[in-house]
Amino acid sequence: MVVQSVSELPLAKDFSSFISVEASARKKSPLKSLLVFMKGNMISLGGGLPHPSTFPFTELSSVVKSAPAGTTALKDTKKENIETVSVPLDPTDGKVESLAASLQYGGGLGMPSLRNFCKTHIESMHKPQYQDWEVIMTCGNTDSFTKALALLLNRGDYILIEKWAYPTAMETIEPLGITAVPIPVDGEGICPKALRQTLDNWGSEPHQTPENKPRVAYLVPTGQNPTGATMGLQRRRDIMAIAQQHNLIIIEDDPYYYLQFSIDDGWMPSLLSLDTDGRVIRLDSFSKTLAPGCRVGYATMNKQFREYFQFHTEVTVQQPSGFSQAVLAEMLVGHWGQEGYTRYLTERVRIEYLNRSKFLQSCLRKYVNSELISFVEPSAGMFIWLKVHVEKHPRHGQVTDSALMLELFNACIAEDVLLTPGWQFSTKPKPQNADLSKVQEFWFDDEATFLRATFAYADFPQMEKAAQSLGVAVTKAFAA
Amino acid sequence: MVVQSVSELPLAKDFSSFISVEASARKKSPLKSLLVFMKGNMISLGGGLPHPSTFPFTELSSVVKSAPAGTTALKDTKKENIETVSVPLDPTDGKVESLAASLQYGGGLGMPSLRNFCKTHIESMHKPQYQDWEVIMTCGNTDSFTKALALLLNRGDYILIEKWAYPTAMETIEPLGITAVPIPVDGEGICPKALRQTLDNWGSEPHQTPENKPRVAYLVPTGQNPTGATMGLQRRRDIMAIAQQHNLIIIEDDPYYYLQFSIDDGWMPSLLSLDTDGRVIRLDSFSKTLAPGCRVGYATMNKQFREYFQFHTEVTVQQPSGFSQAVLAEMLVGHWGQEGYTRYLTERVRIEYLNRSKFLQSCLRKYVNSELISFVEPSAGMFIWLKVHVEKHPRHGQVTDSALMLELFNACIAEDVLLTPGWQFSTKPKPQNADLSKVQEFWFDDEATFLRATFAYADFPQMEKAAQSLGVAVTKAFAA
Ligand SMILES: Cc1ncc(COP(=O)(O)O)c(C=O)c1O
Ligand SMILES: Cc1ncc(COP(=O)(O)O)c(C=O)c1O
What we know:
Chain A is an alpha/beta fold. Chain A contains 11 helices and 17 strands.
């Protein structure tokens, strides 16, 4: 690959026509315009910052695991592999913000030190292929997704989505009056052919008009939830080519990116890294790499989008938690550094889930009849998408596939193993007035002949026991 | 006051017709419905929780000021008035959540210990007068306000608001296609007569129809931003009576509640505490009492509203930061207790701002010609709303009041004192395409003959200097 200097890279294309009605109406907060005067002898009675003397917090620290080998910050050699991360009281070396600054209002971009860290990380990991990309701190990918939707879509619009999707994404989309257009998936995620067909043929159905042709796709390219599918490089290139051809914005929700099980050939390029136009909004989260309770992530997008995204942040959460950001900044910037963080991802997080994935797969192979339940080996993430071969059921055709799946789900419950019903990931509209909480009486979508298993949480003996129970349940269910 | 037992209190009225199109379409997350199975020997491969062994954080602690006198938790007697708050690694006494639990996904209500603390606090401070009120943790009042709007209002709707308002509120309202209906204010906040008139006469203007009659009022009853006004008890009663008569929901945004300067007769009752119908959504924030960087607050509302509010939380921020909540829970629940927290508010936070308020007022009285600039003494909050008597300006009537105000603002800048231009709090629509960041060239709204001063942040010598400079600036500006 020829490395280009940043200045040789193109600027993002103009996507101003993609901005939603809501976002177009957002204005820079006028309060912030007063900051320019804060120089020289100016005394401000302008801003509304609370007085730091009223903050009861005088120190904040966390004991954290050290980044694997190579970290120089290991301070206490007796306590091996852990170090104390203390948010500085005063902005001493200027590397990270002081506690007082972290606890104050600070603006919607997030804390500078942490944001710069994330920016450098994106730079080295994803090497964006256009000049004017920017990073903004967020409260995690769920919130970022809402903001990306508000940025781009109006009530009545359509959005392209993988046929089986993260339920929260559907729960976000539907109340906004946006319609999901499900695109078939295979073991490598969204199918380019089907995507192209949908776009080429838009207009062939009565509700489809040139005006409402989808302009946005929501994709989870790595370790997709629930299918576990990871798009290969060619698949990614194909999708980006379609995006260019049909002028799509892509929301790349990629919380499982660092949970890639094989990186012998390097990390899989992200869609962001294949984007030369600035059409990808990439969402990264610390939820799966450090801890969900951080409620911190970051989003990468072209400068124009970032501005609106920031305005939206400033009238909602204002900024991610200062406690979270301060601890993360001190750990990542002050202690681990870029390399330490990458090693932590590579050698700890990734390996933990790799081992768990391998183990659950071996258990499933051992205990579950693969004629009745099969799966594609996941190459990233936390999930195995179990395909149930209902066509092998003795009563297949006599009752609906949904009925058979419901029986199997209940058989699992009876055997003390809980799996997530496939219909919960369906992108079809759910039946009106259905009580979705009655999971033992309810299954909709005859195509949802799947159960989602995760290897992320249960311990190894539990996983083995669960696979055994699933084996028993499926045998029983298919016997009747 | 006759104290009623909770069971004698009425249930909230049915406000289901107030739910917006967006909120009505929200469903309980089906993923959460699986939790009921987690008992006995059930093994779950269902949920998608990351494995805690991948969390690098093994301890979290903060040194905090002790609550004033009476706290028993003072551990280190040498370091006076501070104590170390450590989030427990394991859920030992069950009083607060463990670090691992705090760092995990936990659901949109917020951490139970902290939420219970806030609930008890609301109970004792505000004594809600109906049975089925509930508390939900939030990411602060800015975010809560967005969620309250999304709960109640559709594009095209109208909302009642104080004539001078918190700019972020306007920035939230306008992009949603909601129109603010400004109601005149006096030194005690929103005027009941004007409010009643607006509602009684709704329909008298062409755009006003019975269908779009305002159903929601957004009010900041204590230390209002920017006017500093605090509604007296009778005023509060009057407003609640109008709300009942016209069936209004009230969003009570009350971040300055605990910054009341005189509590000799007790704390001023909140609108929540006067509400017997469940029509008040009360927003509390830790931003002004502990620190804005917490990004934690809590909202109190009837059970039905709380459900939708929670669903919305779960598809946006998911939950407030676990770092913030864990430190707050350990400090408030584990150390300070209800009484300690109340003492901290009463004896520290309140007193700090009381002293600051008194000091700035004395400086203004000393240095600024009260014929040219007058103000109502604030009885709560952070702000003094300076009324500029432009009618006394020699060129009054020859140029617009806006032009005179802009001159004064620039005269202030020249004297090195920065005050917030009154127009930034205007609830009139801002001129299209105006560059609001050019504050030295721009002033709109001839009625905005105000400057907002805050006594919250500058130190005392700075405040004195600023008042002096303002005195000079106003004399100069009114001389020309
Ligand atoms: C595809 C996808 N996006 C987003 C999330 C949530 O991420 P965050 O915790 O950053 O909001 C999840 C986790 O459940 C997910 O599977
Ligand atoms: C009236 C009002 N509401 C809300 C806020 C912001 O509160 P929070 O930090 O809880 O979002 C402020 C602070 O500037 C305010 O003045």
